[in-house]
Specification:
Largest sheet of chain A: 7 strands, parallel
Structural class of chain A: alpha/beta
Distance between the termini of chain A: 57 Å
Structural class of chain B: alpha+beta
Radius of gyration of chain A: 18 Å
Oligomer: heterodimer
Shape of chain A: globular
Helix content of chain B: 25-40%
Largest sheet of chain B: 3 strands, mixed
Helix content of chain A: 25-40%
Strand content of chain A: 15-25%
Strand order of the largest sheet of chain B: 2-1-6
Radius of gyration of chain B: 19 Å
């Protein structure tokens, strides 16, 4: 018997990341901005999407892939407004790219301006999985407490934007927007931070303007590549 | 918890590499994780203990090495350990830093045993 050590030095998720990069490129090239929405369960991802769909109605096109462990309750809420596919993980705590691609196929691979992926409610596992998004947005609701960024550093480190939700409840809660902002910026100084209430629609314009601006940047980036 | 799915991915890759090297027995797998790998070491070890035997058909040792989280400043080039997830350069205070290690599950090496072939034709 010969004993020897094979040196590998490779990220176990390298292949997944490469596949995600290819899908990101494909969707970006045709002008679809992919947004991965992440948060704890119940922090308002579906409500934010409902309000976003109402805001963009007739002006911009969007589709939603919604991930849950079980049921199609979120898809039932969203499908009257926008094309929606439910991704049911059957108990798994996060979405992975093949499931997202299957959902996209189920919708007929629509050429929309915005493709939202509503991830499984969980601030831990989804942070480790690239779903080909151009933009990762973490939601934190005012009822969850302002100490969350430091507790879930990977989620905040890997996000480009943080949306504070349910701001209509702020007068009733000890939640500090300044504290959560400071904690999040310590981990990800480049984080874009917005506050919204999907209920009374405050902050919705700023959120949608941000999305439009990101979409414009995506179009410009690919236009530049095409004309170079 | 997604440790199980990552252990499965790891074992599949180990199997492929070992097969390509015509190894008969996989003795040890060396894996590095860091504070931002999104892995709970105990859960990873438990999942490994359960799945390794099942996938590889024989017991196999896991050397799970915990590495510190380090980053490099994009402005001044300083390399530093990230303490308390504070992503700011300790020298020039710039906040444009990129992670060097500690944010992934990295397969470092596999120690294998191979049957010496009689005709020495192992390539």
């Amino acid at each position: 018997m010969t004993r020897h050590t094979i040196i590998v030095k490779k990220d176990v998720q390298a292949e997944d990341k490469a596949n995600a990069e290819m899908e990101r490129e494909r969707l970006g090239r045709r002008g679809t901005l992919v947004i991965n929405l992440l948060s704890s369960p119940g922090s308002g991802k579906t409500s934010l999407l409902e309000a976003t769909a109402r805001h963009f109605a007739g002006r911009r096109t969007m589709a939603v892939l919604v991930g849950d462990l079980e049921t199609d309750r979120d898809a039932q809420r969203l499908s009257p407004l926008v094309p929606t596919a439910q991704l049911t993980t059957g108990g798994a705590c996060h979405l992975e790219l093949p499931l997202v691609q299957r959902g996209l196929e189920a919708l007929g691979d629509p050429e929309v301006d915005f493709l939202f992926i509503e991830n499984v409610g969980n601030l831990v596992c989804p942070a480790s999985h690239d779903l080909a998004e151009h933009l990762r947005v973490v939601l934190i609701s005012t009822t969850e407490g302002d100490d969350k960024p430091g507790k879930y550093p990977k989620m905040f480190r890997t996000s480009q934007a943080m949306v504070i939700t349910k701001t209509d409840l702020l007068p009733h809660l000890p939640f500090s927007v300044a504290a959560v902002t400071e904690d999040a910026l310590r981990i990800q100084p480049k984080l874009e931070i917005m506050s919204v209430s999907a209920l009374n629609e405050s902050g919705m314009s700023a959120w949608c303007d941000f999305l439009e601006q990101q979409h414009q940047q995506l179009l410009a980036a690919y236009h530049e590549t095409a004309t170079r | 918890m997604h440790e199980r799915s990552l252990v499965k991915k790891l074992l599949q890759q180990v199997q492929q590499i070992a097969a390509a090297e015509q190894a008969d027995v996989i003795e040890e797998i060396h894996v590095q994780i860091g504070p931002l790998a999104g892995i709970e070491p105990l859960l990873f070890e438990t999942a490994f203990a359960e799945l390794a035997n099942l996938t590889l058909g024989a017991p196999c040792r896991l050397h799970l090495e915990l590495v510190p989280l380090t980053a490099c400043c994009a402005d001044c080039g300083e390399q530093f350990e990230v303490i308390n997830f504070e992503f700011r350069c300790p020298v020039c205070l710039a906040d444009s830093v990129h992670t060097l290690q500690g944010d992934e599950v990295k397969l470092i090496s596999i120690t294998v045993n191979s049957e010496d072939s009689l005709d020495g034709a192992r390539t």
